[in-house]
Structure formats: C-alpha cells, structure tokens
Amino acid sequence: MTKHITRDQSDAKPRIHRDNTLKFFEQRAARAQELGAIKAVLYQDKHPTLAEARDRAEKEALLPVLDTRPGDRVLDVGCGVGRWTSILSERCSYYHGLDFSPGLIDYARRSHAHRTNVQFSVASADDFSLSSLGSQAPFDLILCCGIYIYLNDEEIVSSGRCIADAAGHNARAIFREPIALKQRLTIKDHYSEELEADYNAIYRSKEDLMSLLSLHMAPAGFKLIHDAPMYDDPALNNRTDTKQHFFVLERS
Ligand SMILES: C[S@@+](CC[C@H](N)C(=O)[O-])C[C@H]1O[C@@H](n2cnc3c(N)ncnc32)[C@H](O)[C@@H]1O
C-alpha cells in the first residue's frame, strides 16, 4: 500500500477511499474493549488521559450549546460507540445514532440495550433519510462529531442534503471537526504508529467545510449562528496543523 501525506498544492484534491476508512473503524471496533470506548473513537492511544480529558471538555462546552429540550428528537451522525448516547437520551425524548461501521454500532447497541428511547442504524452519513432510518418524525437536533474528515467533498455535500431532509422546522445542527489551520491536508494510506493502522483523512479550512455543508443546508433554511474553537485548554490540542472547532447551524 502507498503511504504518503499529501499537503495539497494548487487545486489538487486527492480522494480517500471509503473501504480503507471502514477497515480502519472496524479495527477500532474490534479493539474497543482493550482500548476503552472513548479511546476507540477519540484515539490518542499512546497517551494515558488525553482522550478522556477531551471527552469531558467537549461535553462540558457543547452541552449548553446543544440546548437540549425534553421533547427533542436527536440524530447523532457517525455516532461511533455512542459516546453521546447516555447524556442525550437522558435529556431528550428520542435518540438515534447512525454509523457506517457495523462493529461500532454493535458495540453501541450492546452498551445501551437498556435504554428504551434509543435506536442505532448502520448507515452512511451521506446516504440516509427519515424512512431509511425507520423514523416517524423529523429530528430537532443533529450532532456530527469528527466525521467529515473521513468524507470526500461531494460526500459532505450529500450529507448536508440528508441532514436538511431529515431535520424539522426549527432544527439545530452542531458540527465538531478538526480544521486545517494552514492549507488543506490529506492523509492517504499513511501508517500511523500511534494508531497501529493505516489512516486516511482530509482536513479542510472552516470556510471549505461550511461551504460544502451549506450547499444544500443553506437553501433549506440553515444559517451558521455560532462557531468557536472546541477546547479552551491549549494542552487538549496536540497538533500544529489542525485544531478542533465547532459550528452551530440553526434552521429558521
Ligand atoms: C472520530 S470517530 C467519532 C465518533 C463519534 N461521533 C464521537 O464523537 O464519539 C468518527 C466516526 O465517524 C464514523 N464514520 C466515518 N465515515 C463515515 C460515513 N461515511 N458514514 C457514517 N459514519 C462514518 C466512524 O465509523 C466513526 O464512528
């Protein structure tokens, strides 16, 4: 397998392949018991506490922004092991997590089997609808954490359309993503020593990510109402080329 890191020059946009990304997440699912659920999806495998610290900081900062209401129906796109499932299903009337990894969804289902207002589906972020999810009503709150770096540009556009079609009239959509600080960065079939696996991801600027998502979401009435860096504590961002950021879009 070719292993290289591409720092895109001019308008060259290398693609990543979904089969390779899926293989990576199936490996993470297989190691979830050994690594622990949080590390399985937030990584930092060689660091004893960073993933857990990020999980806490993210929930502390995003919960007020999510502004959950008891009657809310929540869709968690790319839900992984269901890191957000407990906290959201306890605050809202219904939680639905979707992820393209059967292994991660199996883990999420087993961990939350006792919850009566929770459902999970194996589905791709760029190819779902209310009817494919078996959902009776639109969603009020859509959460997407750390998934768009695994999609090519046109797949993000399609995902924005799926979200807009599945969202209710006054829905909010919250995105938390690592953002490229300088130029677009594609990691393609690169063996990561830390993750002990081949890794693929595309890091985009804030503007690029928002313009791809907005292509269908803006005409559907979604507006960006807030965006900010994810962590106040600089120690939680351990990369120099990328930084975690969140965006809140609201439909009115
Ligand atoms: C970094 S993990 C984050 C998981 C979860 N959102 C969280 O914050 O705990 C990225 C997740 O995106 C999922 N994913 C990647 N590409 C996807 C796709 N095309 N459709 C659905 N899920 C996808 C992976 O399986 C994985 O669960």
From TrEMBL:
GO BP terms, alphabetized: methylation
A molecular function GO annotation: methyltransferase activity
Pfam families, per database record: Methyltransf_25
Superkingdom classification of source: Bacteria
Domain Methyltransferase: 74-157
SUPFAM superfamilies: S-adenosyl-L-methionine-dependent methyltransferases (SSF53335)
InterPro entries in the record: Methyltransf_25 (IPR041698), SAM-dependent_MTases_sf (IPR029063)
Gene3D superfamilies: Vaccinia Virus protein VP39
Keywords noted in UniProt: Methyltransferase, S-adenosyl-L-methionine, Transferase
Keyword check for Methyltransferase: yes
Protein name: Methyltransferase domain-containing protein
